[in-house]
Here is the input.
Amino acid sequence: MKQTILVTGGTGFIGSHTTVELQQAGYDVVIVDNLSNSNADVVDGIEQITGIRPAFEQVDCCDKAALEAVFSKYPSLCGIIHFAASKAVGESVEKPLLYYRNNILSLLNLLELMPRHNVRGIIFSSSCTVYGQPSSQHLPVTEDAPIQTACSPYGNTKQINEEIIRDCIHSGSPIKSIILRYFNPIGAHPTALIGELPNGVPMNLIPFVTQTAMGIRKELKIFGNDYDTPDGTCIRDYIYVVDLAKAHVKAMERVLDAHTPDIDYFNIGTGRGVSTYEVVTQFEKATGTKVNWTYAPRREGDIEKVWANPDKANNVLGWRAEASLEETLRTAWNWQLKLRERGLM
Ligand code: UD1
Here is the structure.
């Protein structure tokens, strides 16, 4: 019998790509999403790619009764991938209670419901934000690098949620977890049927780049060119969203295996640090499109440089990032072109 996975936030950017990879690996998927930051059409895009329509329940994970009804409706559920969360760093500073409520209550509900419904494994979406700015001896970052005080309520919810899962398992709850710490997910599915749909003015680099190349934004500002990096701009580890999605399939197989640790942590990145300037110039080269950009002052709260040491994911999870930055940037551009074609941007 096929195993069924609950994907919270499954109509979002990473959730939708992960649903596709899970289906292609032979899992049945039930998506739970409150559509607060996504659209139900995404389910159509997933179905067009895989030929299988995932079950979809419009439910807010903070609503425990509604969530419990989903557990009861799908008794074959055996694992959860928990993406559903509010994720705008700036907004989290303005509305911290909203972020603590949404991001923490939804996890508490899942952890309370799992043992009651015999659901054993949960993969949690965490972020490299938990490492803050690692010191030079901790770059590239391994999973053992110190966790640093979060720079925003959003970042803090990731840390707190990691601790909640750890304490819950430590207390003897009959569940297992893998915590994936993502670096910077970018790009879109090669079919351009699903991708990232930012609300309003994008805060993240790649949507801003593609929208500027499209003429939707007048000018991209590269925040800061006086950092202690080779070209003075910040360094990140940009990971192709399809590669990231595949890491979840590996993590799910592993968490459901009775012989693996009850809790484990993996960095999901390429191991390649790339500067903002390099991203913009690579984008222009990969797509043959000009981006109107200028240098601007540093953005408050930005990390200077961080990139992953993905050895543990490579060796233990048996996962590796495969796409080149050039291919990845091309998928982001194709997605932007598709949005224009569909009249969405
Ligand atoms: C941000 C969040 C991080 C979150 C991640 C999700 C902050 C401080 N951190 O990471 O918590 O997990 O998104 O994807 O917001 N840049 C420009 N011009 C722009 C936009 C970005 O130069 O218009 C630069 C930034 O300064 C940064 C790089 O591009 O150096 C990447 O920025 P972004 O995509 O916002 O991601 P992070 O800041 O790494």
Q: What stands out?
A: The longest strand covers residues 121-127. The longest helix spans residues 96-116. Residues 4-187+239-270+315-321 form a domain with the Rossmann fold fold (CATH 3.40.50.720). The pocket of uridine-diphosphate-N-acetylglucosamine is lined by residues 89, 127, 129, 155, 184, 203-205, 208, 220-223, 234, 236, 276, 299, 301-302 (CB under 6 Å).
